[in-house]
Amino acid sequence: MAKEFKITSLRLADLEKELNYLKTTREREIAAMIAEARSYGDLSENSEYDAAKNEQAKLYGRIAEIENILSHAVIIEDENEANGRVGLGCTVVVEMVETGVRTQYRITGSQEANPMEFKLSDDSPFGRAIVGKSANDIFTVNAPNGAYDMKVISVSREG
Description:
Elements: E1 5-8, H1 9-38, H2 47-71, E2 73-76, E3 91-96, E4 102-108, E5 119-121, H3 125-130, E6 138-143, E7 146-156
Helix pairs in contact: 1-2
């Protein structure tokens, strides 16, 4: 069975827009690069041709990747978890029990996760531990560097 990709409708629109750009504008640009490189003559020693063909391979790889994501996408909607429990699309404020340090995260699908922007996947150790919890619940995160306890301070739906 193919892997499902949990994404928001906003991310879906971004991927469709990127796919359209890659299949139209970018594909024409690379075709022009290849045609120009061919005009230089002998292809066996033509670095411009090799570079253009590598660009084309990367382009087709990215197109295939996006098409795979789109064909196996499961759209998550924020209103599905309106019961005050943590789920995809939630913004949560958590507190590390040991230190009292508070941090805000957004729980996303794996395609949207970006720890540098405090967007964590529901498939991550943190995401698996927090999904389904409510405000004031204490949970344990089993991370690669050891387990630690966290407390849910608040759960909201704003982005």
